[in-house]
Structures are given as structure tokens and as C-alpha cells.
Amino acid sequence: MARKLYYSGRSPYARKVRIVLAEKQLPYEHVEANIRQKTPEFLRLNPIGKIPVLVDENGLVFWDSTLIVEYLDETYPQPSFYPSDRLERLRCRQGEELADAMTDQVVARWYEARKGNQAKASVEARHQQDMDRMLAVFETQLGKTPYLLNDQFTAVDIAALCGLGYYTLRFGPSWQRQWPRLGQWFEGLHQRSSVQETMPVKDTTLLKHSQTHL
Hints:
Blueprint: E1 4-7, H1 12-23, E2 29-32, H2 40-45, E3 53-55, E4 61-63, H3 65-75, H4 86-114, H5 120-141, H6 155-171, H7 175-178, H8 180-189, H9 193-197
């Protein structure tokens, strides 16, 4: 059977998986999922109802972007995005979780920005404060190593790139002035074809019920 990825073109979580599939040169069928109107087929694959969802050639089904990336890395190990050393692998997973948590704050801030209530500014500010605290960790790390874990392109870089790509999509590139090392790292990664091919495109119409559409 053909490998399938259920995704949304602007989802930073789905983009993680798309970059890994591209880096490993694994062909797959793109299935754009309508998260506002979930089909029975989609809910059978993932009862949680979130993207991305991977259906591999062997019929195995996985959801949750981090789990999918780890599965792909273990099943198709070249190139690898997790270190082979046990402790370094744990550090990589921890860094990936930090990047995902940063992305969660970006998405949460975007949801608040789409609301019309007067209290949204203070809530947005809290999300930004949380995000900045996490970005400071990555900015410091880039003063020590060329990538966010060590001297190799890993799952940490992929997750953080996708989060900052979504932030740039929604709020612009001004963050690069505050975090110059991250900005340089971010621009450098855009030389990779996997990054260029998966860049999210800004929606041209204002969608209602934005909480269900990343």
C-alpha cells in the first residue's frame, strides 16, 4: 500500500514530519485534512482528531508528530536525526520537547490574536513571554554549537525551525532582531530543499473558527 500523510499545509507539527520524509527521500501521498470537518475515515485513523497522521506502507498508523518522527528515524535510519548515544538521544528528545512547547505558545498566541476581546493583549503577552524564555535557551546553545543540540542537524532543529517558521508566517520575521544567532541559523536552514519545499503559505482569506485551523 502507498504511504500516506494526513496534514494541513500550515501546520508546524505536520511540517516536522514532511521535512523528515523529504530528508529521507521517502515518497508519500499528501492528504489534506479538513480539521473543522473531520471525515469518518480520518477519525478511524486517529480518534483524537488531530494532525498529522501517518499511514505507512506496512499499514501501521501513527499520530503525534514527535512519535511519527521517531518511528521514521528508527524504521528508515538514513539519514538519522537522533544520536545513537543513549544520553545524547535523551538530550535530543528533551530539546525537541522544548521546541514543541515553544511552538505550542506560538499557536496559542495566534489563537488569541484572532479573538476580538479586549483582554487578548495581556494573554498574548504571556504567551510571548513563555516563548521568549524558551528561545533564550536555543540562542545560548547556538553560541556553543552550530545546531541546537550539537554539530549535527537533528530533530531539535527540525522542531524549532517549524515553530519559528509558523511564527514568521503569523507575526513576521522581527523576532530575528531579538535573537540574532537563531535568525542566522533559521536563514541558513532555508538552504535545505526539504525546508524550502515545506514552507507554509499564508492564508489569503480570514477564516472563522480559527481555533480548529492552524
